[in-house]
Amino acid sequence: MGKTMAEKIFEKKAGRPVRPGDIVVVPVDWAMGQDGTTPLAIQSFEEMNGKSVFRPDRIVFVIDHNAPSPLESVSRLHDLMRSFARKFGIRVFEVGEGVCHELMMSRGLVVPGDLVVGADSHTCTYGAIGAFSTGIGSTELAVVMMTGKLWFKVPESLCIRLSGELPLGVFAKDVILRIAALLGADGATYQAIEFHGPVVERLSVEERATLTNMAVEVGAKAGMVPPDEKTIKWVKERTDRPFEVVLPDPDAVYARTLDIDCSGLVPQVAFPHRVDNVRPITEALGIPIREAFVGTCTNGRITDLEVVAKILRGRKVHPEVRLIVAPASKEAFLVALERGWVRDIVEAGGVFVPPGCGPCVGTHQGIPGDGWNVISTANRNFRGRMGNREASIYLASPATVAASAVEGEIADPRKYLG
Amino acid sequence: MRAMRLTGRVHKFGDDINTDYIISGKYKFKTLDMQELARHVMEDLDPEFAQKVRPGDFIAAGKNFGCGSSREQAPRALLACGIRGVLAKSFARIFFRNAINCGLFVVECDTDKIENGDEVTVDLEKGEVVNLTKGITLSVPPLPQVMIDILREGGLVNYFKKYGSFEKA
Q: Checking DSSP bridges between strand A132-135 and strand A149-153, what pairing results, if any?
């Protein structure tokens, strides 16, 4: 009987055949923590009398969620991370380097076939290059730092086959929002999602990361794309570390298969206050907005900034709207600078904040006002998520966010991309 | 060894209660002081919630409790606020693990049979929830052994201090 990608990766790590539902204790290839979760992991590490870390070269700390620090208490927590990292020789990605998940992939750390844990729910992103990666808690991160291992339940898998062709102005974000609508916020709980089909094959590695990033928004433990030539080229451009691609068996057994024809898809919008409250753009047109946000581990990458610049070039952001842009990494920011996109966006009236999570988590850099509607490229629109429970957040693709920033109300990006 | 049987009064919530609602990002990034975070538990859904909780109370909710962010501050702040357990039709997986790792009871059962203010006894040895107010017994699917062992020690920190690895339990 054939095996899924998740089963094959756990089998390789466990050194024995595994089936969905099995509990395995296995070594991980990487452990990651960010500034919202690592300080608590350090506290747990100390409570457990941790004396050493298992493999400092495979632990990464990233200061991205609340960076640069807006408060003295946050600065103290950042320093706690820095001093712990210095003591044990752990790598820290500092303020302004970018969002943790983007760095784990684009800096050539994670490779296909890796098993990765991160103290951040969107750790599932690295499935875009065929790794099994999943979010864990702070105390689990502490245990992994001490021992290099964690227990897992081998998940069953859900196969999503994306057929047809994406129409102009419709992006990976629209596809994953549609999937959220179809599955619901718990539609894939404890499952690993495999994304298959011609639409996925045509997406760039960056765009695939938009799909896998939001796997957790339907409850999934991981979201994965089987690596192809494009993946291998992308990874080899970033690392010399050898790797072995893990592909699903042709006769792999899935808990469920979902076929979606993308040819007729229109831009999608997630309405407040649920990620699965998704409607076609036609039902959102004309909703007034006061803030537009481009960025995050979902949609702050080079191709995202490119489409935003393309729409804003020679246009103006609506006077009632604050457009905030947070590149997902320093590299994406520099590319946007070199190619003139930063100028396009800034001249239109957009504001750049440092590479990192920006206002996504409600701590700084763009907390909306009372009664504001925000349109955002992020992955969550829970009430209060951006720091004010009196604001409402709509989620959409970077193109839809840019078009809406220009018009001051939710707008269809397709007319700007003809 | 911690008690695997608890009794408390229920606060009822709906489906898909995410960890941002349990403790908002704007608070959890600032501090490791769980007593401070406890004051803001569930604030975006019910600004008065923290004041309503008496030590030993439970939350009962619908499906997918704890979805969203991986923040372990969510179960920790609930515990600091006085909540000893959460009963729900289903849980999001990271929260479920975090809760066990912090020693917070998490119990899957048919919460349609539990109303706000009901008194319930959760018995994880027997695998059942008794709604004392209504006189109904609800069944609970068994937990993996590793989770029972962690819960018995009161959480992952104590478990690890005792066993030093997951393989030795």
A: unpaired
